[in-house]
Amino acid sequence: MTGPAPEFATRRRGELFDGLVDLFLTEGFAHLTLDEIAARLRCSKSTLYTLADSKDELVRSATIHFFRGAVAAIDERTRDIVGARAQIIGFLEAIGATLAPASDRFMADLDAFTPAREVYEQNTAAAADRVKELVDQGVADGEFRAVHAAFAADLAATMITRIQQRGVRTSTGLDDAEAYRELAAILTGGISK
Predict the structure, then answer these.
(1) Residue pair 64/23 in contact by the 8 Å Cβ criterion
(2) Amino acid 2: pLDDT
(3) For residue 7, what pLDDT is reported?
(4) Number of neighbouring beta carbons within 10 Å of residue 30
(5) Over residues 98-118, mean pLDDT
(6) How many CB atoms lie within 10 A of CB 37?
(7) 96/94 Cα distance (integer angstroms)
(8) Residue 10 confidence (pLDDT)
(9) Residue 187 has pLDDT above 50, yes or no
């Protein structure tokens, strides 16, 4: 007897991770057991164990899956944008749009669970690196005044983290998408010539 064709197994695995991401984004994950996750995804617990050896590993893997999809979506949304200022605005707004489906419960669970938070932090660092590249590009092209690009990137990373932790929402009332738009406007306005 043979197993499923490799393309089916890969497609099914992707569907399961997509389902996990949707479930976690909507409801969080800390309160869910593996039995509850399997029931919600309409699969067996043994099927979940083909994805990961434990709930912790499953959450981490689903978080990685989410951020891989987010990076692809952000790249797609910003691919044709021209000019450093427009690219920074588009990039930060795309981050906000991509994270918009994440519930407060998911974000709180993500912040409280070190392996998932580390994935978020890695992606935040990559976003800061991208902002730094765009600032450097804008300075080189004469679109921005000479600024310390690493500082601008650190500012962006700090605010991305505060947005993720809901600190900005608490202190300002801005939802995440509004906060990313404001960050983009303030950052690019502050460095424009």
Answers:
(1) no
(2) 41
(3) 52
(4) 16
(5) 92
(6) 22
(7) 5
(8) 79
(9) yes
CA atoms within 13 A on the CB side of 127: 31
Write down the mean pLDDT value for the chain.
90
- CA pseudo-torsion sign 189, 172, 122, 68: negative
Position of tokens 């962006």? 156
Cα 134 from Cα 87, distance rounded (Å): 7
Closest C-alpha to 152, from 177, 184, 175, 174:
184
Cα 122 from Cα 116, distance rounded (Å) = 10
Q: In the chain, where are the structural domains located?
A: 6-191
CATH fold of 6-191 reads Tetracycline Repressor; domain 2 (1.10.357)
Which phi and psi angles does 144 have, rounded to 5°? -115, 155
Does the structure show a pLDDT above 50 at 6?
no
Q: What is the mean pLDDT of residues 51-64?
A: 95
